[in-house]
Batch of 4 targets.
Target 1
Amino acid sequence: MKQFSPSCERNKDFILPVLQEVLPAVGTVLEVGSGTGQHAAFFAAHLPQLVWQPTDLPGNFPSIRAWAAEVGLANLRAPLKLDLLASAERWPVSSAAAVVCINTVHIVAWKGVENLFAGAGRVLAPGGVLVVYGAYRYATRPLEPSNETFDQWLKARDPASGVRDFEAVNALAQQNALLLSGDRAMPGNNRSIWWIKT
């Protein structure tokens, strides 16, 4: 039942310091698109002051539960269903101190990206933070060759997916009262980007 993602294993140690820096001191972190559950288990263990709430489609629940059972943490909640393509209004929680979404924005269709920002804007209180991680395209510079190849691979797999334009994503944030607070280069030509709810 327990699934393993090499990319999760590679990036978790790089993402953790960003989360330690930008997440609030206490409260619930809503993870959107928990996938295998590796990140949930790892981050909950290293951020014991926060309650970690994984979400995904039910097909991923067995793996998320298996990773959670392995670490046995009181601050790691059972997974909840969150379908980004359904609606920004149908989220399983009504409030969160932070929303974290890793390697999902380039996978889900654009409607799902819109729903991510609308939903985050709705559940975050002022001062709450939305953190995303992944590959992004910027109008001010050429896309890195590795991300160009990644983008082609994504679109061959699913034409609705692909490396997103940072400017379009940031516009969604602004529409939902989320103010850009940080944009950090990460290994493998990825970015950690975060916004604060105003």
Note: The beta strands are 27-32, 50-56, 80-81, 96-102, 124-134, 136-137, 164-165, 178-186, 190-197.
Target 2
Amino acid sequence: MTSRRVLPALLLLFVGSGCAALIYEVVWFQLLELVIGSSAVSMAVLLGTFMGGMCLGSLLLPRLVPSSAHPLRVYAWLELGIGAMGLLLLFSMPLVGGAYTAWAGSGVVGILLRGVAAAVCLLPPTLLMGATLPAIARWVEASPDGVAWLGFFYGGNTAGAVLGSLLAGFYLLSAFDVSVATYVAVALNVTVAVLALVLSVPAPFVAAAPARETRPTSGRGLVYLVIGLSGLTALGSEVIWTRLLSLLFGATVYTFSLILAVFLAGLGIGSTLGSALARGARRPRVALGWCQLSLAAAMAWSAYVLTQSLPYWPINPSIVTSAWFQFQLDLMRAIFALLPGAILWGASFPLALASVVTPAVDPGRVVGGVYAANTLGAIVGSLTAGLVLVVVFGTERSQQILIGLSALSGLLLLFEAKVSTVAIALAAGAATLLAITVQPIPGIFVAFGRYTATQLNQADIIYVGEGWNASVAVSERSNGVRNYHNAGKVQASSEPQDMRLQRMLGHLTTLVPRSPRSVLVIGCGAGVTAGAVSVDPAVERETIAEIEPLVPRVVSTYFSEHNFDVVRNPKVTIRVDDARHFLFTTRETFDAITSDPLDPWVKGAAMLYTREFFDLVKSRLNPGGVVTLFVQLYESNKEAVKSEIATFFEAFPNGMIFANTYNGQGYDLVLLGQVEPTRIDLDEMEDRLKRPEYASVAKSLSEIGMYTAVDLFATYAGSAEDMGSWLRDAEINRDRNLRLQYLAGRGLNLYRADAIFAEMLPYAGVPQGVFHGSPALVESLMQKIHSVLGR
């Protein structure tokens, strides 16, 4: 017999447990992404391992822990174990990273090693997490009322997960770092464990004797199949919807936390409602069947809202005056799109429990089996949606497949329960019609994302592709300008100001070092920077590291006129990989490295701006090597720009800034750094540009209005020494905090480029000891620099 008085208290404990679990998930994923990369394959390995551990834990506990053990004490020890593993992972992750990078590479072997690294880190704690619900299930009776309480526990755990997602994404990691977030999660685990132990003292437990079977158990396998398909469609849809909403909101870390929180909130609401329904349901399998059929309608609703409705709402994000207002808007749009389906998926779990539980079985085994089936389906759904369905079939067909699977699972249950044939036929017809209503993702939405409504009829979309890591597009305006779009915005273009930046980035990279034989380009984009590198005759080998395969294979070909057809150049090698992971695992060194990644507010991009990453870059530089980095001033804020520059200068104290202005106003920057003090011989540079073999380089520079070396270096806008006082309050972006992605995420819709540049300029001094050459040439350069600096 068990005490019902502690059940409400257990519900609160599950809230704390769920909160800690989501904080851990966010922290562990962030730490492991730094080691094994942030590509779609890496994320699939991480998610599969995390959920696989929970699946195994739910299956193993009822088989390894005797049913006579006090559930509250078992639960308490599980929570303490999770907390201990959290602390262990925090301090042992560098060792795992070192072992991984010593052996890792590319191809199948690389993927297997990614899996090993993830398994070593995630399986032990997630096994314990997955065991918590089956452990506490033994506290309740195998009755409709007991099943209802299990559903409430699941809902409470999910409510805690909502809190943990928001707490980690919007506060703990934004204001502190992974250490503080981990300590908070550990404190929650310890608190929950102590309270569970305290509750166990006045609440003795006697395992119930097995009762004789009082209701049929046939069809239990079908219920497991249905709840597995429910998990598959839930996580598959979440993957697709997250991709679409990241276009609409901007792919910031805040967006992902918000989407996860809304989805989890829906699961919690649904679980609570489903628990109440399961308590009095005479035929829970029929209710579960209709729930799955209703999900077909909910998924069709979300498909319509996300592709045909929300992108066209008359909203202009650039007029936002507060990030708080933007959050409110995005929250309501996420609720509008996601909540119906999430509620129905949440309700499926307690209905599935009610469909299989009988007084004659161990409640822990029942819960473990249903939870494992649901989690296994979720693993399959998340992996196939991100790596197969969207890439092979596209968003439209993928959603139709998921609607069909949900409808099929519901129809199977109704058929097994001998529901009216007419009702089944009508339901099947309705589901078919709902699937047909799903429309392709609009090209203009892929291209312009949150600005879709303001860009209607402004450009022709000439290519749309849905890849492993991102949806990309190429557009062309009436004046012939082409744009490359990723993350729902223009990332590169043939606009004069963008061409100037991309060519500057490439030519500074190869002209400053004395012998740039081997060059690494981080981020292919439109290929213009890589193309500028490729035409330098001193470059013998060029490697382009690009995370999305579609970009070099397809997108860059649309800009071949501007990028010198770089991807077909025989001295160019394409490496499809996260640039950080590539540098960690390669043994190659380079004479120059240039980095032009996605905007720092895009989740994962800040990993390419940390102090540790710049140290890694230095370790891959040959003596005399040069590093250049693109820093945007538009769609950013002062705090993010300061963080980028200060972090780079901390790694390269001899660094310099070169400015790309537009109509005399600040637009973006190029940072240049060397381990040794930089020395530029203007006479030698001018002579080099006049040689016949450098004709392509000279022509490339002239196309952006730079006819001499003096013109190129006249864009100088300060040094690390000059900017010291301006950067005094800058927050250094480090692996343990990834501060930049939180700072930059707040400047997503801001256009303050010139104001930021104007604030920088007074600190910029005249370069000393950098430029050498004939007095006339040096004097000419100084005059032009004075003009740029407004002096």
Note: Residues 210-217 have pLDDT under 50 and may be disordered.
Target 3
Amino acid sequence: MPSRFFISHSSIDKTFAIALKGHLGPAVWVDLYEMEVGDLLLQEITAGIEQATDFVILWSSAAVTSKWVQFEFHMAFVRWLEDQAVALRIICLDSTELPLYFRPFLQSREASDPAEVASLLMHRAPKPPVRRSFFNRNQEIDQIEAALYAPAVVAVWMWGVAGVGKRSLVAEAIRRLTSSNTNARSITVNSGVAEPELNLMLSSALSTAPADPSEPTGAISEDSATLLDQFTSVGGIWVFEEAQHWLEDDGSPGRVAMHVLNSIEAANGGDPERLVIFTSTRRPHLRPPWNSLIKLVQLKGLRPDFGVALLRSREAQGTAEELRLATEELDGHPLALELAAPKLPAQPYDFSKQRIRLATDLIASTRLSRFTWHVMEALAAVAGPFPAGDLAASLSLTSEQLQTAVAEGDSHGLIQFSEISHLVLHPLVRDFYLRSFRQREDSDSRLDDLASRAKEYLTQISATDPTYVDALLSTFRLLGLSGRLEEAQALHRGLTGTLYATADLLYQERRYELALRYLEETLTGNESIDRDPLLLKARCLAYLGKVDEARELGNHLVARSPVDVKVLRVRGRIEYIDKNWREAIRYFEAGLSVRPRNPALLGDLAQAMVRIDDWERARVTAKASIDSGGDTPYTLNLYSQILEHHEEFVTAEEMMRRAVRGDPTNPAYRHRLGRIAQQQGKRMEARDEYRKSVELDPRYHESWLSLASISADLGEYILAEDALAHAEALPRVPKSVVSNVKAKIALMRGELNNAQEYINDALRHARDRQNLGLAMRVLIQRAYTGDMATARAKPEIALLVNELDAMGYGSDIDDMVKSWPDYFNKE
């Protein structure tokens, strides 16, 4: 398609615009040439922008005050947001500072030669964007329409796996069923959206003042109920996306979800056109009367014909039959199809029917540029409005590099635009890139920089700006994660939900002291609201060694809610943390007596069973957890460990590969794959897995040590010594293991005196199976080579045999006796 330029300029810069048109050729929109006398100005400008492939602003001190330049840019920007069908290009004619939102589109600074500018515009054409299509979902849209006009239905709850297209479907349904997209307001839920945050979001969506944050939670909830009613009473539809964050462990709607539902139901009064829509990745568990008031809609994958159309739109190669087969193998999961498209055609065995794990696996293997990966990480950390210029500056990228990175992320379907037009990551990959961000060695400094930039940006926008609330919540969270709680609370003191979510993330990162400090700030005195913060507080106390305080708090919560599964589970975790395995089991079993198929409790119980060496019950329980929907990477890893104990290495490896697909950046999972391969005698494969582990996290000393050990076994001594040097440079590396590996390398090199010295040092630190076995090998080798008298070696070997036998490792001794019978007593 030939380029057609729209040149936006102030009247003072008209001469430059005309000269530029002369160099670009006839396909240029400039008002002097294209507007006839009597033409309607607004219609002509709109038509010019609609027909343009490239929108060019001539930026200058005169353009700053030109209302037409601002108006034209906003029209072009809307078109760019909708389908990126126009390229935005900024040409600076002087040194006038660019607004933040212009900077990603900068093409040239202080241009003075129209010919040079024309050459730049003609030869740096952006890559044409891939257009997105909406594929037929008429059946699901009909269900939403039926619910809209059913007097007894208060809400539609649409659920389906992440990436299946819930957001797109709801947007399309609203577009078809209402006269304007202004008839809907979308709220994106996360784990930090409690009563105060919800009130801010509702008030921002309706451009009205929020409740006073100093008011009690009940008063804030009443204000939110009024806001919900105001909009639905005039035919408005509230959409709450990602509402799985408002579901309890058993799937029942939690406190905030019930507040929304009760508010809508109370105001409904039989009005058939009042409706609220929820979307979630989990199916809600509804009890009477809500099971009749809420319409459940499961969104499954695309039908094969539409899946093939989607693949074609993403430039997948292959025959119709090959693409249809791929669609069926992926269950029509739209995001998985988008990610798989560049890899097609492929054989059926290349795919897994586990849609989400497949998508995550494909994301992990997608060849994104280094710049794009860093942009994805930063967007995951920010999770809110953030100036493109600041994003580029924080990552030390040029505006062109940032534009290229965003375009690449969008081409893979990983980056989206929010309702208020800022960049966000697809929900399916947000946690993936956040984990990647937090694993960076410079994560803390980058986070602190992002927090400072977010705080500065917040001061530049009005509280009435549509982006303000999202920017406030994002900034508050960034400051909190950076340990700058006072600065966060200076912005807003009532964001208890966001503060709790921040504390939870700190807990996941094992920053218990800071998490505990934040949790104290979230407590309201209302135990029904404070339940989750108090449960997290109990766990933090236990990990900090304050077990008595944790037990006291846990006992109080159990006495108040004796059949609350979550409370019983946390009470059991307190005992588990304190290594009281059997007492932990008692609480886990009490929880399972209330909810027998709870996958989280089954996983906890299996873990405790392993600790008391009840491997058979652990195996059955872990399998039950997976079969009940608890096939998380953690539980798969646990089950693999149990299978490994039973020496069922093939199935153990299969479970670990599933765990890796679910969490491909976890170095511990790669390490376990290496262990399993090593036990199967696949030493080369084990070495490769250990290498992948340290590539994911160079601080993971277990894999450095294993890499050193397996490399020594393979005779790769230089690699072994290099891996060992990396391990020794890390803090808290087990001295016994380091000395063991040094002894093994020395033994393999024939340096027997050094081997004896190193293994003696290892035994001083730990008299375990590995060290005792290697000590026997060193003694045997010394006797065999004459470095030590056999008569002297045999008594020392006998002592080691007794120790190993007492530990239950008689099979290790039998193997050595078969290989070296002369060095063992014949009794």
Note: The radius of gyration is 32 Å.
Target 4
Amino acid sequence: MYKKTQLIIYLIIFYAFNINAGISIYDLKCEYMDNPIGLDEKTPRFSWKLKSDEDGKYQKAYQIKVELIVLNGNSNREIVWNSGTINSSTIPAIYSGPELNSFSRYHWRVRVLDNRDQWSEWSENSCFVTGMMSKNDWKGSWISDGEGLSGNSKDEKRAPYFRKEFKVEKPIRSARVYIAEAGLYELSINGKRVGDHILDPMFTRFDHRNLYVSYDISNLIQAGDNAVGVLLGNGWYNHQSIAVWYFDRAPWRDRPAFCLDLLITYVDGSVETIVTGEDWKTSFGPLVFNSIYTGEHYDARLDNKGWSTPGYNDSDWKRTIIRSSPSKKIKAQILHPIRYTDELRPVEVKKIDDYTWFYNFGRNISGTTRLKVKGSEGTILHLKHGEVLTEFGRIDMSNIDGHYRSVDDTDPFQTDIYILKGSDDFEEFTPKFNYKGFQYVEVTSSTPLELSSDNLIAYFIHSDVPTIGNIRTSSDIVNKMWNASNNSYLTNLLGYPTDCPHREKNGWTGDAHIAIEVGLYNFDAITIYEKWIADHWDEQQPNGVLPAIIPSSGWGYHWANGLDWTSSLTIIPWNLHLFYGDIRLLKRGYDNIKRYIDHVNKKHPTGLTDWGLGDWVPVKSRTPVEFSSSIYYYVDTNILSKTAKLLGETDDYKKYSALASKIKCAINSKYLNYDTGVYGSGLQTEQSMALFWDIVPSDLKEKVTNILVKRVISDNKHIDVGLLGSKTILNALSENGYPQLAWEVASQENYPSWGWWIKNGATTFYENWSVEKEKTNSMNHIMFGEINAWFYKGLGGIFPDEENPGFKSFILKPNFVEGLNQFEATHDSPYGQIVSGWKRKGRNITYNVSVPSNSKAILYLNDIYTVLNFKSLVNNPLIKIEETSDNKYQIELQSGIYLFEIKKDKI
């Protein structure tokens, strides 16, 4: 058989045979969390992974048992659900037993039946604890301090402190606290901070839905006198600072308030509940101002040390007031919380003058700083945070403060203010209700101070989602690109995906759906996205329209909220289905997607729409908005039709499939030259969007691809795209026969390119292709981050399989590009770790693959490869090889570890 290239492939499979070969079960999760507390989901999802000491094993069936732990003086177990044998090899499994009780601890375990009809041992017990299964479970009242000096409580600058004392006179078995709040809070029991979360609860549309957080505080309750303390911050609920998005005018804005139930279960089985009410006391303290957008001001001279401990003298504190709940929907916050994830020491400290010190923390982050300092009483310190320096080495905020609308200098942007009390000991200050985007900090004092690297450290904060992906290559700049894009992703993940951690902190819909695969290949982020899509449902108008930023104060329904941006409503749930094999979000949001599509269809019956923002921040060429928005109209409608099919909605499937075909035909009719294969003007964005989103008629793909290739080459193998094109350019090339050209574009190191940023010292991705300060609005955006996901796809070749989602089966299409000597991508899928890596040595390539238990892969080798020793491969029961009509090889791999040795004879 003649081939353009002849390769010798030797396959080595490593087995670990054992007489007692079996399957072990690990990584049990409920609602994608480890042992969640406060669950209010009536049908929770269970997931697990398998590990086998024999390759090729998989799950044929499973059985789950759920036990209620009954605390009635003795700990008894009561089986509430025995699933029996469920003939399924997929996860997640969904609870379908009796209604779950509130405030109850459940244990669950699973065993699986393998393909040899052998049952595994039962897994270890995992647990979940329910919270408020009904809104009637709440016993406490919503309380606030309710008044300010100005007569308008929401304009009061000082943060309210709350406290209550109670007695414990019997031995306790357990204690849990449930706190719902409008704003932000910090909770303490007997002077000790509860939990390690920060910036709780997550930002929602507060007048539609509020979140509560649950904690086990058994180890904090003591015999005798106890005290609970709550400090409230404004967050996005009582937005103090003025900016162009009008959060200071949000319809929900009010003084922060909260509701708390503290349940103590005693050894004798009795339960006591401590609740919020008018008997709580409130006062002010040293936190005199806080804004999620700008900073915090703390006057240590007003120290109220011990305010959350029993015995504190609160005689001058006033009683709280009861107020209404901010919304009718109070739901559990079951997601990965925001935490301090890294501590950074300064890499450079220098004295600018007697009053000012400069700190460089080495990389751009989202976070806060901790000040530790001594000084005289009344000394005022300003801590100014930024990511850009002037030519004189001072912080320059001109790239990020353009949307800030300060009316005076009492609320400086990205600046904390600390006033010393003048203690002989070191005073420490870390903001509680604010975060910034920064690399540099200037500390300016009202009196001369001598500082050093010990006086200021930085904390990286973000939603603490587990890392599940990794890229390692022989290219230093590729490694830095991957790290920088991940850094940008995490700095913009704080309970919802944001655009930047400083200038806006907004949940821009377009930025998020463009970067969805960046998130899902690298991080276990489903809990954040499920919360954020629920925010979409809260914001959606009855006619289906969504705002451009979510959550929103009401801004964004009039601009930038067209098809290309608010497709987050469809694209993100669809990708969660592909990556997790979970259809819940598509099912629960099905009617929301229908309303959205029906509205567009009514407004734009031709199948074309110019409702959108377009290819935002292009290098130079601009793609027509109608072209790009109409493509997203097709994408959304196509997702709706496929969802209808999955849900068994036959009539809807027919209806929206027909609409999707109509839209595609309308796009091609207006924009495609069938003779030349040119879309519009043949720009990179036009050609690549049409290819990537499957707009191109199948018989014209080669012609359209050739136009794209010519265009890229004429652009000197550099990008000429904006946001929408950045999603498609590399993928369209590598998935249509030109991975080498895609690699050459991706690895460029001069303008315009991703590598150009890295060459200029970037540790995060930028908002503009230029690195010139006056042209770059932000030095920390994730909007152009798709190249990160392309590393997994275009080089590692790892793709989810739409027919078997959640990586139950997955596709491998590796590309061994010239110019890169070593590459490895790993992804910890719902079934276990996938590895796709290759190494070049001279003309030889070694390709290694790992397929997790209970999963399989289909490996495609394109037509430049020849498989020799064909018969010996066929004899292996774990491998099936088929030669397709276009001279490509399709190799089915069961679970196991595989090593291919490939020798390239000639080109």
Note: Residues 1-21, 865-875 have pLDDT under 50 and may be disordered.
